[in-house]
Amino acid sequence: xxxKWILSLxxxxxxxxxxxxxxxxxxxxxRELRMDRQTPPQGVACIECHRQETPGxxxxxxxxxxxxxxxxxxxxHQAQPGDKDIAVEHEKYYSMGDMxxxxxxxxxxxxxxxTPKDCSRCHPDxxxxxxxxxxxxxxxxxxxxxxWLNQGMNSDNERKTGCFYCHGTVLKMKDGKxxxxxxxxxxxxxxxxxxxxxSCTSCHTRHRFSVMEARxxxxxxxxxxxxxHPQIEIYNESKHGDIYHAFKQEYNFDSAxxxxxxxxxxxxxxxxxxHMSGSGKQPTTHDVTERLSWETQAPLTVRPQDFKxxxxxxxxxxxxxxxRDICKQCHGNAWVDDHYTQFDKAVExxxxxxxxPAKAILDQLYEKGLLDKSKFFDENLEVQYYELWxxxxxxxxxxxxxxxxxxxxxxxxxxxxHRFNHFMEEARHLIETNTKAYRYPDFPNTGxxxxxxxxxxxxx
Length: 460
Known about the structure:
Elements: H1 2-26, H2 41-53, H3 55-62, H4 65-68, H5 73-77, H6 116-119, H7 124-131, H8 138-145, H9 147-150, H10 156-167, E1 173-174, E2 177-178, H11 211-215, H12 217-220, H13 231-237, H14 239-247, H15 271-275, H16 316-327, H17 333-367, H18 380-401, H19 405-433, H20 454-457
Antiparallel strand pairs: 1-2
Helix pairs in contact: 2-3, 13-14, 17-18, 17-19, 18-19
């Protein structure tokens, strides 16, 4: 009898323990956030208010490395008296009794946009490298080469919701708040009110600011996609992309900055692996202009130091050797050398067989007055010329650079041939018959401001 009682008690304990275990699996313990490093009362006020009012922002921050290091809202958002980007509207919260911590004693001036200048207080090297990159200076580059802007062929709001969302706006204040014509925006070349260029949250989205996120190709694919620069589609077609998608669950994306190692943390590279991460003898860089030996976005492919809108200030051979060092972490010399031989040949063929002849006959049409220079895109040949280099030509060159055969050929040179033939047929007909090109009378929604931003270019 005594033995049966003991067995029954043991069975009951087992059931209780299993039930507790099941409960623990179904109801994970809520993470407790601790305020360390003598967080000031104003910092606690920010956290407690946002915990209630914007729980998504709070949750992101609470899971970040910043939170683990005791970095609070104030470390990034606190402004100094006289700063141009102070959020005047935010000051009203400190006199609202129905807001948590809404008392004057917690008042601190804050700025909504956090800029590379703010981030540089803790990340000086990254901010300095970024400031030299094409990313940071993309507004200047865009205004120097883009006919949509310079000819006013789209509307200001089309630019705001499209072009500027990736390239960046020139931030302005209006009535104590950020001007909605320039905000919200996290474009890589955004001109901030403190004079700095860019937005770190383009790649490290707020408020997690994850290194893991910035290392994934999907992050770059937010902007690098579509008919004119389909790097994410090209990457996905390549062997690199194929391996990434097959084995990404095995990748260690949380490796410490500067320590992310091929063959240890990942099998095949992502965009960041080749263009930014440290590997071999190459240190990590936030200047994506490094390691490039051709400017494949340009109408005529040139070396980066010869790209007139934004010369790199580097030597292409030095930068190619850097990229070769990255490649050789996984590939042998013959593979790397032969790849560059093919890539260089693709660049030469694009320049000589397609772009230069098209540019020469376009100039001839302008000289003869058969095309009108006052606007761009209001005549068919201008559109054909633009898409030859800006769409098919880029896809051909970038496909060859990143080893994606479908983009190098079917979406690239194959389409170049057809675009070129149609362009030359119409151009020769106009010259032979001395006929002016038909102009579209109904080109819609034009009238965007053609004034270059004085904040970048000065008074014209």
